[in-house]
Amino acid sequence: MNTIKLERGTDKLAAVATLTFNRPDKLNALNDELLGETEAALRDLYNDHSLKVLVLTGAGDKAFVAGADILTMSKLSSGEAHTFGARGHRVGRMLEEAPFAVIGAINGFALGGGLEIAMCSDFLYASDKAKFGQPEINLGVIPGMGGTQRLTRRVGIGMARELCLTGKMIDAQEALRITLVNAVFPHAELLPKVYETAATIASKSQLPIRAVRRTITFGADVPLATANELELQAFSALFGSDDQREGMGAFLEKRAATFTGK
Ligand code: COA
C-alpha cells in the first residue's frame, strides 16, 4: 500500500484498526490510487469479523485530507469525472454500511472530498487545528462524493448551502457549534481521546454495534414509520443471541458482561 496505512491495535484496542490516509506531501489528497487502496482495504476489513471500530485519520501534522486531488481532477473529462466521483461514493457507502463503527479523527484540513469521506464516519472528533470546508465552488465545480447530501443531513440545509455556496473554511470550534464534529481537543490529545472512545465501543458486543449503525444509516433515508419498523426488526433479532443473554444476565447477576459476538 502506497497511499494508506492500516494498523491494528493491541490489548483494549485489539478490535480497533486505524486507516491513515498517507500522502502527507500532498496533504493526503484523494487520487485514484488512494481511493482504490482504501476500497480494497475496506473489502478486507469487511471480512475481519473481529473488528469493531475503524479510526480514520491523516498522516502528518497538517491535514486529514485536503480534498480530491486537483491535479487528477484538472485532466478529467465529464465521463471520467463521473467514474472518479462514483469511486468516492463507493468508498463512502462502504464506510457507512460497514459492520464496524467508524470514527473520524480530524487532525487538520478536512476539505472537499476529505470532508465528504469524513462524514461517512459515525462521528468526528477534531483537533483544535482542524479546518473544514467544501471549497469545490472555488474550482468551478461542486462536491461530487456526497458533500451536498451528507453535509445537509449532518448540519442542516441552511448551513450546508452556505458552506457549499461560499466555499469558505470554518475552524474546529465553529464545526463543533454546528455539530459537524462531536468534540474538539488540543492537537496532541486528539488520538488518545479517539482511542479512549474506540476502546469503549470495542468493549461492547459486535451485534448491537452493527445493528445501531445499520438502523441509523438505512433509517435516515426512509419515512419514520418504515425506519421505526427497521429498528423493531433489528432490536428483536438480537434476542436469543448469546450476547443478549450475557448482557442482561450479567446485569442481573451484578457482574461485568463478557461478549463473544455470537
Ligand atoms: N489536490 C492536490 N494537491 C493538493 C491538494 C489537493 N486537494 N491540497 C493540497 N495539495 C498539495 C499542494 O499543491 C502542495 O503541493 P506542492 O508542494 O507539490 O506544491 C502541497 O499539497 C501542500 O499544500 P500547500 O497548498 O502548499 O499548503 P498550504 O498550507 O499553503 O495550504 C490548503 C493548505 C489546504 C489551504 C491548500 O493546500 C488548498 O487550498 N488545497 C486545496 C483545497 C481544496 O480546494 N480542496 C477541494 C478539492 S475538491
Strand count, sense and barrel status of the largest sheet are: 6 strands, mixed
- Measure the end-to-end span: 33 Å
Mean pLDDT score, rounded? 98
| CA-based shape | globular
Number of strands: 10
> How are strands sequenced across the largest beta sheet?
1-2-3-5-7-10
Question: Which series of helices and strands comes N to C?
Answer: EEHEEHHEEHEEHHEHEHHHH
Q: Write down the CATH topology of the largest domain.
A: 2-enoyl-CoA Hydratase, Chain A, domain 1
Unreliable segments of 5+ consecutive residues: none
| Helix and strand composition category | alpha/beta
Put simply, the count of helices is 11
Looking at CATH, the homologous superfamily of the largest domain is 2-enoyl-CoA Hydratase, Chain A, domain 1
The CATH class name of the largest domain reads Alpha Beta
- As a percent range, the share of strand residues is 15-25%
Measured as a percent range, the helix fraction is: 40-55%
Rg over CA atoms, rounded to whole Å, is 19 Å
Characterise the protein shown here.
The structure is a single chain. This protein has 262 residues and is of the alpha/beta class. The chain folds into 2 domains: 4-202, Alpha-Beta Complex (2-enoyl-CoA Hydratase, Chain A, domain 1); 206-252, Lyase 2-enoyl-coa Hydratase, Chain  A, domain 2, CATH 1.10.12. It is 47% helix and 16% strand. The protein contains 11 helices and 10 strands. Strand 1 and strand 2 (16-21) form a beta hairpin. The longest helix is centred in the middle third of the chain and has 20 residues, at 78-97. The two termini are 33 Å apart. The model has no long low-confidence stretch (mean pLDDT 98).
